[in-house]
Amino acid sequence: MGLLSKRDAALLTDPLADNNPITIQVLGICSALAITAELKASIVMAVSVLFVLGLGNVVISLMRNIIPSKIRIIVQLIVVATLVIIVDLVLKAFAYELSKTLSVFVGLIITNCIIMGRFEAFALGNGPWRAFLDGIGNAVGYGVILIAVGFFRELLGSGTLLGFKVLGDPIEKTGLYAIGYENNGFMLLSPMALIVVGILIWIQRSRNTSLIEEN
Amino acid sequence: MSKRTDSNGYTMMFAVIMVFVVGSLLAFLASSLKPAIKENERIEKQQNILYAMGVNENDASNANFVSTKVAGAEFKKYIKKQLVLEGNKISESQDAYLIDVKKQQANAKDGKVRKLPLFVGEKEGKTFYVAPIRGKGLWDAIWGYVSMDENMVVQGAYFDHKGETPGLGANIKQRYFMDDFIGEHLMTEAGVFKGITVKKGNNDAVNEDKTDYEVDAIAGATITGDGVSAMIKKDLSLYVPYFKNLKK
Of the residues B147, B166, B182, B206, which has the maximum number of CB atoms within 10 A of its CB? Predict the structure, then answer.
């Protein structure tokens, strides 16, 4: 018997693979397009969503019996916006450098469909502990895809990883560039994020054919 | 199952109480953290100005400010004069670096006189003139500081942004972009102000030609790049009379 019951463990592991928020539920695509041109930005976004979704799911779950159903979406929006703004303000006051890197993500986190989706689909109907696990699971599932997309886009688009020139210097013509390799500038543009996600979906479904819908 | 939470009265009450609680929580937090945030912003301005004139802790490829602890002292050491230009009037002020460029731009739009801050710094016997600029990127505000010599040749530049796309427009604050501006001329020999245009495909990726009034653009960041060109042209052209007087 592990730390978690089987049912609880499934909450964590399902979103990583067979119920991945991006590749299966196709949620959170907007931010996957917007910020994956760089690996670092992908990682920052993944960690931010992990934090907000874990905490937000718990808060919504605790409030689930008092939230009026007619305005529940507005309540969810306010909870996530409040959480994000509090974090933003505290960082601005005590970790200014970090807050400058994160400020771009504030708007993207608030409008992330995965967050609203998990609040609506899970936290409103489950206890706080399970909601927390669900939040963490989905955020990690989201983050894994984001980081994978960021990895390929930065590597093929800029020839760097986390800013390090892993393939050599394109201007000085060292490393791979010495034998005629060129960066693919197209990888930096948003459409390529969609294509990379599409390829990931393809790989995932070809390995697990039960995921393919019947027409 | 009839739920009491479905009634209109409950819904209204809930909404009112929630707005009140969340509103006061955020207001309280914002006002209690304001002094700390303002202080951070003040130090950052000093760091930005020092960065533009080459007082920074850059390593091989990353842009690093002087640390927040020494920023105040370094600012005093290197910045010899803080000028405020108002029309033809030039005055000195210890707080010129706190002038809100955004507010001044709005003033100019309303037909009032715009206060133009200019920081005169000295490093290793060389004089730097640092001017703030501000404009629009793709999503939100972009701004920066440009340091020039007395002929309006750029000696250093610092750019920053509020919400440009990470990996694309946000790269205007990367070393490889900002360093491209160093040595670029803003004015022709004859004294015509040209500005510097951020240009795609200018066949000068390593930026060897310093008198083409162009620097190489960032792929995927066309609108942010155009914003940078525009703010340089618009805001720095206002300083041209000062530099022309300087030479007389």
Answer: B147
| pLDDT, chain B, mean | 88
Put simply, the answer to whether B14 touches A66 (Cβ < 8 Å) is: yes
pLDDT of residue A45: 84
DSSP secondary structure string, chain B? ---GGGSHHHHHHHHHHHHHHHHHHHHHHHHHHHHHHHHHHHHHHHHHHHHHTT-S---SS---PPPHHHHHHHHHHHEEEEEEEETTEEEE-TTGGG--HHHHHHHHHTTPPPPEEEEEEEETTEEEEEEEEEEE-SSSEEEEEEEE-TT-BEEEEEEEESSPPTTTGGGGGSHHHHGGGTT-BSB-TT--B---EEETT-S-TT---TTSSEEEPPTT-HHHHHHHHHHHHHHHHTTHHHHHHHH-
Q: What is the pLDDT of residue A2?
A: 57
Q: Do B5 and A65 touch (CB under 8 A)?
A: yes
Q: What is the value of ipTM here, to two decimals?
A: 0.73
Which two tokens mark A214? Answer: 């019947």
Amino acid at B148: M
Residues with Cβ within 8 Å of A91's Cβ and at least 6 positions away in sequence, in order, are A98, A99, A102
Which residue in A has a C-alpha nearest to residue B222's C-alpha? A189
Q: Which residue of A has its CA nearest to B65?
A: A97
Domain residue ranges of chain A, discontinuous segments joined by +: 21-207
Report domain extents, chain B.
40-247
- Residue B155: pLDDT over 50: yes
pTM across the whole model: 0.75
* Minimum distance, in Å, between the CA of residue B23 and any CA atom of chain A: 9
